[in-house]
Amino acid sequence: MSEELVSRLDVIETQPLAERAESYLRLHEEFTRTLEQAPE
């Protein structure tokens, strides 16, 4: 896992539950976009 991702996850885990859920959703959306753009 990259240091950047670990840092982001550390920050997300300190947030209240509702904010944490939104942050994980945004992270998931970023991963999805990245995977969809990757060559097959």
Distance between the termini: 22 Å
Number of domains: 1
Which structural class should the secondary elements be placed in? mainly alpha
User: What fraction of the residues are assigned to beta strands by DSSP?
Assistant: under 5%
Radius of gyration: 12 Å
Determine the number of helices (DSSP H or I, runs of at least 4 residues): 2
Name the helix and strand elements from N-terminus to C-terminus, one letter apiece: HH
Determine the fraction of residues in helical runs and give it as a percent range: over 70%
Number of strands: 0
- Biggest sheet, in brief? none
How would you describe this structure to a colleague?
- The chain is built from two helices and no strands.
- It has one domain.
- It is an all-alpha fold and 40 residues long.
- 0% of the residues are buried.
- The model has no long low-confidence stretch (mean pLDDT 94).
- The protein has helices spanning 3-13, 17-37.
- The two termini are 22 Å apart.
